[in-house]
Amino acid sequence: MSDDNVRILRTPGHHGYGVKFSPFNPNLVAVATGQNFGLLGRGKLILSDLCLPDDGVVSSCEWSDALFDLTWSEQSPNNIVTASGDGTLHLWDTANPQAPLMVYQEHLKEVYSVDWSQTQDYQVFVSASWDTTLKLWDPNRSRSLMTMTGHEALVYQAVWSPHLSGCIASVAGDGILRIWNTKKNSQPSITIRVCEGEVLSCDWCKYNENVIATASTDANIYGWDLRQPTLPIFILFGHEYPVRRVKFSPFIETQLASASYDFTTRVWDHTAPSPCLEVMKNHTEFVYGLDLSNHKEGVMADCAWDQTVAIYHPGKPHLTPHEALQ
Amino acid sequence: MPSVVREMPLFASLTMLHVTNHWQMRACDGLRVVLQHREMREIESMRARTGPMRGPGIADLASEASNWAEEYLASETHVQEIGPGGDWTKEFLEQQHGLTSPDIIPDSDTRWAHEYLSETLLDEAASAEASKWVEEYNPQEDSELARTANELLGTVDDPKFSNTEFMSFIKILGEGAKTDTNKDWSEEFLTSNSKEAGSLAESWSAEFIKERRQPHERWGEEFAKQLGSLDNMTIDSETMSTKEKEDFWQNLQDEWEKMAREDELTEHPWLSEFNSTAFEPFKNYQFEEDNPLKDHPDPLSEGKRCLEAGDLPSAVLLFEAAAQQSPENAEAWLLLGVTHAENEQDPSAISALRRCVEIDPNNSVAWMALATSYTNESYQTLACNSLKEWIRVNPEYNHSLPINDEAIHRKPRLMATTLAPRELIQEVQDLYIAAANQRPGENIDADVQCGLGVLFNLTGEYEKAIDCFNASLSVRPKDAKLWNKLGATLANSERSEEAIDAYRNALEISPGFIRCRYNLGISCINLGAHRRRGEDQVGRNLHELCLITSGQH
């Protein structure tokens, strides 16, 4: 793949854990990072504007511990929530990056994932932590609304369903995918054993409310239909090492992307006879974060432990900030 | 904050196990925990720190001034279970309250945030200390950290990983020496104390055996035992084959997991449901163990009589007897399957019907029944293929199928999916539409229309399905199963009232039709859940339901 269609942003001294496009502005992308591979030291939330040259950094927010994940607010274009290794979450105003607007401190261990509700009627976010719980938060309140227990190991990711209000999927180191109905109670509604290893990521299909994909340490991506959860509806083979992130395309129903410890990011179509469409090797270390733009079809971003963020459009010959992203 | 003492043995054991590259990241996560502990020990002595805020009880939240939150916390819905499988989203939605979106309360917490902010300034000082720690890190002093870092190093043999920055970082933790890489960041980690570049990777195993004798850690002893038994085998990546390595570590992992699970308080037996994944669903039919009618002289005729009379449970037992007495009798299997379906037992129906078509592949009734049952169980691909087979064995329509169609020979694994590839659905739809057009005007083939109706149910095109079933009923108005199918389609498209009318028609024809009665119940409940007004209608229907039920017994 030529270098022309990949834009690299550097995050020197910091290793990326999560990257997300802004839901409001197609040119803004934010990265959650930590020093020293997130093992020790501080963390930084970096906001970049792709219209600006080089690394395009607009502002950055610092925290005393590594930041493991971020989510954009669906209400206010300048707000981002980050999840940190000291168990706290923070609400930032990117226009005033000196200090967070709110700090949410309840989790007992590292918070590994945070996600803002995807249905407009319900402005809350969920956090998933290594203390095996998920917590539901109203951004205006410093105390959580609900704590969901049920997982028996570190929870790696929690994701809201874009179709059903109040519905969350979460995956954990016990190899289990759980679906929660936050409007009913704090018990899991559906429990599915994905595999023998750990499940590191999950994502909902944007076009079919019954379909979820999971990424696990056995290097496979499983697809599940919640109406018939005893068997996966598809299995994607190809990655050589654990798959760290999976994300369904916002544009094509059967397409998804995945990032893995084998340093590659892949694009798949699970109904195609040869499902792996693209293999992208933009990194030299573990790829940790992945996002697909909601505004521009096919545009992706991933961040890795090589201190870079790559923005690209697989299959398209030329990518310049002004053409592709405006 | 990470919990303090418990993490140490956990981390150590994890690192031991996570030697196959698959688990590298967990080892790193464990490493992270150890580093944090060290940091905490130092920082805690530096300054007083307010403890983390614990989340308050639910009762405390109820007093806050936010009507949304109050409503949310006070809500406890106890909604009846709606039905098996099928539409989980409907179930999901029905379990929810309608809640108003939260008001944006004026932020009374800003003061608190400012207070916190002043704490973060202290945090900065602490973090500066933390980074300095890395520079001053002395592996001789913190031998545990160094050792575990070295262990991790020793397990990595894939050059792809050993050349990464991350591995260099781990090396530094293990050796404390300046590495030879030319990367800029390594300068940060320079220590003033250079360490002898010992033969780390080779000696870690010996060191490990020596050190891991902590009696309070059972796993440690187990591990050492295992290691002792493998004394003669060098744990050298070059000489050991990949398979041997994987086996070796896999055994360890299993040991560890076994021990970890011994302490678990609750086993989750129902989870094993999901573990026993048979990729070929409904493979073998399970006969009733204690069948009182097993030796009936003519179970087939008797069974048919029971079916006519509406006594489904007896019919099932009789047909099972018939199938056990003459296992190659396709009719027995067909009747068994069909009766199970009427009795709301789709999985059993599928097993029996599969047996039937194995014996008699040209049995079109069986194929259509299979398609219906598969659809109910959401096995879309299998349903499509069954519909295709129906066409194939039907002399009037099978000219449109190519002779060497490979569909049936596809791997079972792919067949047992809930989402059929769009091409397959389109193909079968085209076949049926062509078949329907073959018969002009009024001369409708009820089965074709029925098949088409089932197809449209698969794809969720309920309006079209309703048209098809209506067409089918115009030719066969006395077919209770068709009425039931129409009712089910209406119910699935939220037309519960009309569904109930259809069900009542079916039950008039066939009062013992349990599946239909079941569906009727569901529709009544749905009406009740969705309608606030019109309670007369609901009441009337429920009343009728009771009448029908009581009238039977």
From TrEMBL, chain A:
For this protein, the record's PROSITE patterns field holds: WD_REPEATS_2 (PS50082), WD_REPEATS_REGION (PS50294)
Where, per UniProt, does this protein localize? Cytoplasm, Cytosol; Peroxisome matrix
Which SMART domains does the record associate with it? WD40
Annotated WD repeat ranges: 104-147, 148-190, 236-269
Which GO BP terms sit in this record?
protein import into peroxisome matrix
Q: Which UniProt keywords apply?
A: Cytoplasm, Peroxisome, Protein transport, Repeat, Transport, WD repeat
The record's listing under InterPro entries reads: PEX7, WD40/YVTN_repeat-like_dom_sf, WD40_PAC1, WD40_repeat_dom_sf, WD40_rpt
| Gene Ontology terms, MF aspect | peroxisome matrix targeting signal-2 binding
User: Matching SUPFAM superfamilies, A to Z?
Assistant: WD40 repeat-like
- Per the record, GO CC terms? cytosol; peroxisomal matrix
Q: Name one Pfam family in it.
A: WD40
Signal peptide span? none
PANTHER family, alphabetized: PEROXISOMAL TARGETING SIGNAL 2 RECEPTOR
**Which protein family is it in?**
Belongs to the WD repeat peroxin-7 family.
Write the protein's name.
Peroxin-7
Q: Which organism is it from?
A: Cherax quadricarinatus (Australian red claw crayfish)
UniProtKB/TrEMBL annotation, chain B:
Gene3D superfamilies, from UniProt?
Tetratricopeptide repeat domain
Q: Where does the UniProt entry say this protein principally localizes?
A: cytoplasm
Q: Which UniProt keywords apply?
A: Cytoplasm, Peroxisome, Repeat, TPR repeat
Q: Which GO terms describe its biological process?
A: protein import into peroxisome matrix, docking
GO MF, any single term? peroxisome matrix targeting signal-1 binding
* Matches recorded under InterPro entries: PEX5/PEX5L (IPR024111), TPR-like_helical_dom_sf (IPR011990), TPR_rpt (IPR019734)
What compartments host this protein?
A: Cytoplasm; Peroxisome
Q: Which GO terms describe its cellular component?
A: cytosol; peroxisomal membrane
Could you tell me which residues the TPR repeats occupy?
Answer: 330-363, 446-479, 480-513
Q: Does the keyword Membrane apply?
A: no
Matching entries from Pfam families are given as: TPR_16 (PF13432), TPR_19 (PF14559)
Q: Which SMART domains does the UniProt entry name for this protein?
A: TPR
What domain of life does the UniProt record list for this protein's source? Eukaryota
Protein family membership: Belongs to the peroxisomal targeting signal receptor family.
Question: What protein name applies here?
Answer: Peroxisomal targeting signal 1 receptor
Q: Which organism is it from?
A: Cherax quadricarinatus (Australian red claw crayfish)
